Amino acid sequence: MRVLGVDPGLTRCGVGVVDGAPGRPLRMVACGVVRTPAELDVAHRLLQIEEGLELWFDRHQPELVAVERVFAQHNVRTVMGTAQASAVAMLCATRRGIPVTLHTPSEVKAAISGNGRADKAQVGAMVTRLLRLDAPPKPADAADALALAICHIWRGAATDRIAAAVAAARPKEYRR
Amino acid sequence: MRVLGVDPGLTRCGVGVVDGAPGRPLRMVACGVVRTPAELDVAHRLLQIEEGLELWFDRHQPELVAVERVFAQHNVRTVMGTAQASAVAMLCATRRGIPVTLHTPSEVKAAISGNGRADKAQVGAMVTRLLRLDAPPKPADAADALALAICHIWRGAATDRIAAAVAAARPKEYRR
Question: In which residue ranges of chain A is pLDDT below 50?
Fold first, then answer.
């Protein structure tokens, strides 16, 4: 399966595409960031993120999308922008009928390093090793997005079956 | 000018359309709410809000959009959803090239009642009076959306000129 991971942010929205299945070798397809300038108003920044993400969806045709779950207890200054960027990512996926799953940062860290409190460097090192890259992906937002995709491939098999069952049980007007 | 006010929320997203100009009588065009069921996942709720708001944009063709500015210090439980719903409203407007302005709740209360700490009932009463309605619009989210639109009509004249000047001074690739 092909998973697009999104580490949402207004200034740098990390994106990473990984092919894989539980128990099989992982393959990085692409990674990068969608950037928007801080001097632009929020509405236009969100529009640029939408346009940037649409290109990633068009180019890589992911089957599943994993987005970092945003918590309000983080840095209050940036958390609203992060929540808004994550809304754009969810919209882009759901509009195309692609299932979206949210993972918390500690779920991602635990999945790829065995430690829910792993630091950035450790996450970067594990992403590099698991995807057999020559160096950690830069910027860190791109590495985090790849980590999300890997987490989803490993955790997702069970979760997706549950989500599919829930979707099937849902009244028809909510389905896409 | 025709202003669409949006009081963002995942469960009830208030919408209100008002025609008017500073110093002229105001006219309510329509008001209501876009609702999404709490049992749906966030991604699909955001999609339903997008689809609901698109209908309001199509039907009423607003020239300006006013969205309530969300603060992180509010109820932490609901604030993320509110921020995400506001992102959808901003996207819908900006995609159509319609200028979006954010107003804080106290700006809105002060504009329409003279008191930045006015309660819901007072806001509802002033909206009813200013729009010459027979009764306060229900639910309160619809009244709040109308209050936002009125606030924008009254405060907006100056703000819009500034925004237009800023937009004109912006590099071309950021403009729509």
Answer: 174-176
What is residue B75's predicted lDDT score, i.e. its pLDDT? 67
- Using left for φ > 0, alpha for ψ between -120 and 50, and beta otherwise, residue A36 falls in beta
Kindly identify which residue of chain A lies nearest to residue B95, measuring between CA atoms.
A47
Residues in chain A: 176
- Name residues 61-100 of chain B within 8 A of A (Cβ): 70-73, 76-77, 79-80, 83-88, 90-91, 93-95, 100
Rounded Cα distance between B103 and A167, Å, is 37
Tokens of B118: 């006015």
pLDDT at A19: 98
pLDDT tens digits, B29-70: 999 999 999 999 999 999 999 999 999 999 999 999 999 998
Domains of chain B: 2-174 (3.30.420.10)
- What does each C-alpha distance from B74 to A33, A79, A80, A173, B69 come to in angstroms? 31, 13, 12, 32, 11
From B158, B156, B154, B155, select the one nearest B24 (Cα to Cα): B154
